[in-house]
């Protein structure tokens, strides 16, 4: 749509809702919605800035990539032409058509598998579990490196039975090499009615993942735990040491264990230009 049409639509919505466009026409505290200013930027500029800063990849994250799919796809195409990797951090709730359009340019995806019951998805996400599971399997079949993340929320998705079933699904349908990230919930924004996830819950879920056969199970939002690190699944040697955002790499340049030579699941070579 044109800018004029866009502004007209925004103005109409503002008039009907009583919300100021920039959030400045109503006194603070009277329920107006402040607008976060953005910056117009082209896919070419984003890729050029990434290369200038020595980045190896571009990750579309925080805002769901399919919300701005046209931009995300243009970035991915341009990034691949310039020798950069592309990553989506996504909720996985997208059409198969969109996923297949992005797949030729998408190297990796970290997918939120938020729970393992359809009831959770319907109540808390206004979505469904099935399409997310199907897209995880489709991503894997399309050659995308897949990682799974689950934010464990006390009383909502922390059932040992559900977490165990989720771990077994990952092993069976995605492979034992698939990393599973278990993140700690902290009360914030619109969910302050429960406490942070007990560390023992994360540790128990991590053990379930390993017992199911997963090679790489991590805990997140709890800096300092040994489960932040990556170990060789064959000999147990420490390969990647992490503390929050600090990383020490002990692998060979080819992405293998220096002690036994076992290859680590991941991407450790320059992307092919397409």
What distinguishing features does this structure have?
single chain; 274 residues; six-stranded parallel sheet
Summarize the model shown.
The chain has about 270 residues and is α/β, with parallel strands linked by helices. The protein is built from eight helices and nine strands.
Give a structural overview.
- With 274 residues, this protein is an alpha/beta fold.
- It is built from 8 helices and 9 strands.
- It has a 6-stranded parallel β-sheet with strand order 1-2-3-4-5-6.
- A hairpin with a 6-residue loop joins strand 7 (230-231) and strand 8 (238-243).
List the helices and strands and how they pair.
Layout: H1 3-17, H2 43-52, E1 57-60, H3 69-81, E2 85-90, H4 96-102, E3 108-112, H5 118-125, H6 129-141, E4 145-152, H7 160-174, E5 180-184, H8 199-212, E6 217-220, E7 230-231, E8 238-243, E9 246-249
Parallel strand pairs: 1-2, 2-3, 3-4, 4-5, 5-6
Antiparallel strand pairs: 7-8, 8-9
Helix pairs in contact: 2-3, 7-8
Total helical segments: 8
How are the strands of the largest sheet arranged? 1-2-3-4-5-6
Shape: globular
Poorly predicted tracts of residues: 1-30
The total count of strands amounts to: 9
Q: Mind describing the biggest β-sheet?
A: 6 strands, parallel
Would you tell me the overall average pLDDT? Answer: 88
Percentage beta strand: 15-25%
Query: Which class best fits the helix and strand makeup?
Result: alpha/beta
Radius of gyration: 21 Å
């Amino acid at each position: 749509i044109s800018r004029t049409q866009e502004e007209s639509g925004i103005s109409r919505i503002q008039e009907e809702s009583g919300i100021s466009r920039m959030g400045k026409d109503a006194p603070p505290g009277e329920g107006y919605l402040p607008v976060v200013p953005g910056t117009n930027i082209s896919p070419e500029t984003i890729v050029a800035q990434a290369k200038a800063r020595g980045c190896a990849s571009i990750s579309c994250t925080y805002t769901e990539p399919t919300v701005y799919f046209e931009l995300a796809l243009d970035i991915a195409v341009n990034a691949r032409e310039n020798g950069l990797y592309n990553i989506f951090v996504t909720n996985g709730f997208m059409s198969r058509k969109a996923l297949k359009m992005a797949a030729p340019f998408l190297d990796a995806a970290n997918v939120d598998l938020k729970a393992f019951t359809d009831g959770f998805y319907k109540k808390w996400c206004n979505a469904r579990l099935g399409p997310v599971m199907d897209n995880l399997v489709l991503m894997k079949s399309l050659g995308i490196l897949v990682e799974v993340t689950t934010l464990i929320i006390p009383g909502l998705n922390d059932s040992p039975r559900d977490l165990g079933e989720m771990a077994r699904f990952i092993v069976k349908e995605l492979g034992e090499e698939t990393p599973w990230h278990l993140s700690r919930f902290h009360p914030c924004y619109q969910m302050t009615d429960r406490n942070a996830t007990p560390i023992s819950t994360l540790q128990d879920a991590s053990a379930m993942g390993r017992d199911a056969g997963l090679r790489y199970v991590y805990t997140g939002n709890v800096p300092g735990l040994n489960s932040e690190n990556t170990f060789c699944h064959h000999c147990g040697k420490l390969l990647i040491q992490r503390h929050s955002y600090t990383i020490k790499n002990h692998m060979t340049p080819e992405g293998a264990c220096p002690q036994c030579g076992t290859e680590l699941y991941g991407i450790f070579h320059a992307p092919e230009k397409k």
